[in-house]
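Human: If only I could read C-alpha cells as easily as an amino acid sequence. Take your time, and here it is.
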Amino acid sequence: MTTPSANHSMFRRIVRRLLFANRGRLFVVLLALSAGAAVSAALLNLQVDAKRRLTSEFRAFGPNVIIVPKAASLSSSETFSERVVKEIPVNLPSRPVFVSSVLYVVAGVSASQSGKSLSGIVAGTSPLLFIQVRALPSPTNPADPAKAIPLKLPQGPACMAGDRIAGRLEARQGAELVLTNGEHRESCVIAGFRATGWPGDDRVEIELHAAQSLADQPGRISAIELYVPGTPQQIESYVSSLQKQLPDLDVRPLRQFTEAQAKIYSRISGLLTAATAIILILTALCVMAAMTNIAAERKHDVGMMKAIGGSARRILNIFLTEAVLLGLIGGLIGAAAGIALSMALGKAVFGVAALPRLIVYPISVTLTVIVAILGAYPLRRLANVRPATIFRGEA
C-alpha cells in the first residue's frame, strides 16, 4: 500500500511529464498566441494612433472653425481688433486648440524673378506656417529628389505662395515677391509652397504685421481661424460656448471638415476593430486545434493522476494555469513585437511612424490570455476520463 507522500511525489512527477512531454505542440501554441498578440497589438496601436494622425492630417487642410465680423464674408473688408485672440480658450482638456489670426488684403503681386505681376489676395497670418519647402533639382539629375541641392534663401521676410498663384507668376522658391497696395509696399522671399486644393492655393501668405502695414490697418484682423480637435459634438459644444463669449462676432464651424474627419475615423476604427476580432478568433481556433491533440495524448497521464487521488478540479486547475502562463508569455512577447510592427505600418500608411501607446500593451496581453483560456477548452474533456477505462486500454 502506497503512502500519501509517495502518491504526492508520483503526482508531481506526472504533472512535470504533462507539462514538458509535449514541448513541440506547446511551442506551436505559444507561437500562435505570440503571432495573434503581435497582429492584434499592431492593429490596436494603429487604431489608438489613428485619431491623432487624422487630426494632424486634417489640420494641414486648414481650419474647421472661423471667427469673422457678423454679417461679413471672408472676402469683405470688415475687420476687428486682434486683441480678441487673447479671449479664446485654447487649453482644453487633452485637446489644445490651434489659433491663427488672418488679415486679407487685395494687393498687387509681382515676381522680380520673372517680371510677371497680377492682382491677388495677400493673407497676413500669425503664426505663419510653412507646409512644404522644396529644394532645387540637381544639375546632373534633375529628376532625383534625393540628390537635390538645398536652397539657401536670401535674407528678408519669408512668405508662403499658393501653388496656383506661384504658377501664374512663374515664381520659384527663393524668388522675391513685391506686394503693393496704393502707396504701401512690402517685399518677401518665397520660402515654400502651399498645395491643398483649396482657395488658399491662390493667395500669398505673409507675416501678420507686414500685412497690417500693407493694408494700413495696425492691430486689425479679418478673421480668426481655429483648428479644434475632437468629435463633431465636442466641436459644436466648443463653438456654442465661444459664440456666447464673443457675441459681437460670428463663430462659424466648417462642418464638412469635422464630419469628414469623424466619418473617416469611424470607418478606420471599425475596420481595425473587426480585423483585431478576426485575428483573435483565428488564434483561438488554432490554439484549440493544438489543445485537442494534446488532450488526446494526455488521457493516460490524467487517468493515472486520478487513480492516485487527484481530483478533477485540481487537474483542471493545472491545465488552466498552463493556459494562462502560455497566454501571458505569448502576450508579452507578441505585444512588444506588435507595437514595433505598428510603428513600421504607420510609417508606410501615414508617412510617419505611429507612436507607441502604452495602454495597448496590457490590453493586448489580457486579450491573449483570454484567447489562451478559451483555446484550452478541449482540455475540459480530460475531467471525464475514468482511470479504469484507461487501464483497460479502452481509450
About this structure: The chain has a mean pLDDT of 76. Residues 255-297 form the longest helix (43 residues). Residues 64-253 form one domain.
